Amino acid sequence: MAEKLLKFVNLQRAMPDKRASEARRNDFGEIYAEFAAPAATAQASRCSQCGVPFCQVHCPLSNNIPDWLKLTAEGRLEEAYEMSSATNTFPEICGRICPQDRLCEGNCVIEQSGHGTVTIGAIEKYITDTAFDMGWVKAAKPTHERKESVGIIGAGPAGLAAADLLRRRGYQVTVYDRHDRVGGLMIYGIPNFKLEKPIVLRRAELLRESGVTFKTGFEIGRDASLDELRKKHDALLVATGVYKARELQAPGSGAKNIVAALDYLIASNRKGLGDTVPEFESGALDAAGKNVVVIGGGDTAMDCVRTAVRQGAKSVKCLYRRDRANMPGSQREVANAEEEGVEFLWQSLPHSFLDDAQGQVRAVRTTRIHLGPPDATGRQVPTPIEGSDFDVEADLVVKALGFDAEDLPRLFDSPALAVTAAGTIKIDWRTLMTAIPGVFAAGDIVRGASLVVWGIRDGRDAAMSIEKYLSTTSQRAAAE
Questions:
Q1: Quick count: other Cβ atoms within 10 Å of Cβ 53?
Q2: Confidence of residue 293 (pLDDT cuts 50, 70, 90)
Q3: Per-residue pLDDT for 31 more than 90?
Q4: Architecture of 2-134 per CATH?
Q5: Can 149-242+405-479 and 249-402 be said to share one CATH topology?
Q6: For the stretch 210-248, what's the b/e string if a residue is b when 16 or more beta carbons lie within 10 angstroms of its beta carbon?
Q7: What percent of the chain shows pLDDT beyond 70?
Q8: Can you give the residue ranges of every domain in the chain?
Q9: What is the pTM of this model?
Q10: Which residues lie below 8 Å from residue 383, measured CB to CB, with a gap of 6+?
């Protein structure tokens, strides 16, 4: 079937059709259409099947990308899905929200040679959506049940990936989450225009069908301590993520209508899910008719500016202290935001907030930045330019400055849970176990705020470590 590949020489790169910016500004629907089967097959055929697949090397999950591209090009979609899902718990989600321009596609060999990358993410999405439509995706049915029980704290990407793998091995799995729905930031943090919520909820339903038990609205430290959960389970996995918003310590930061990014996004997503959200109904977390300023340059900032556009903001500006080339967010997301009318003020550093007589924010005082020589990380150091202050009008300011770990030893009533100086959980990197025997940790609560794909990778790794631990414990008990 080699004649079905290596078509990159005479076939141009193409993405699925993207909705016009004027149309997508008015709703929260996903912006890309589905690939038609012939288009997906054709785009997969552009893969060069190179000897060293850098797309796979730079994928956190080491997905077998050339293999499932080849199978797609040959029309063997069910096999392509089996290959894709062998290494990835949620390929349909990664196909939608992974920053492919920084990972697999950004390292595609034919991209480096000037032919344009294979559209890996869109094909991954197409494969899995087709698999769901055709009924190929089934709930896991373990070949045998094991008596050992595993409790997982957190129903985000890491927790769900671990739950899936452990359940497939036959372990009894219970997932605890303080929110009322399963999915973590995939449900409440990522807007619908990137990831529609039924995509996440159908995976949660498959896990339920496989025998995973979910206890939502369950908060460790309130409904049970960590020690109490340890007595109920043979092993625990902490996969809470990081939710504490970083603050901008600046004069005037206490003014009204200066909000954290996650508060803003959760309110919007809850509204989209049909919930009653008092903070949204009051207008406090609704951008409609307002001059909105978002501070930050990561993917969360892009989610915020594009959400504000869809809520009917009067204007949307993004302030970032470095330039476009140095921003951490996906360049694809920046381009989408620009198309939708977002104005980026590069090399702009907010340093204070101005309010009106009612204490409402009215402007962000900002200084222009000069980018100096690179520091140890290789990024240019931002230096304020003296006398360059200017004001940016604002009725709503959203701080998208990143996230830190909450104080879990205190929240979980577990002082023995060791943490790093950054507040993330300290683990033995060989076993992924914390300082407490039988308690493991994975995802953002270990590595810090990161990508969904890294959460999936960490959750799968943790599941394998937990299985090894439980097997060793069982063998020891049998020998005694």
A1: 23
A2: very high
A3: yes
A4: Orthogonal Bundle (1.10)
A5: yes
A6: bbbebeeebebeeebebeebbeebbbbbbbbbbbebeeb
A7: 98
A8: 2-134, 149-242+405-479, 249-402
A9: 0.94
A10: 369, 370, 371, 372
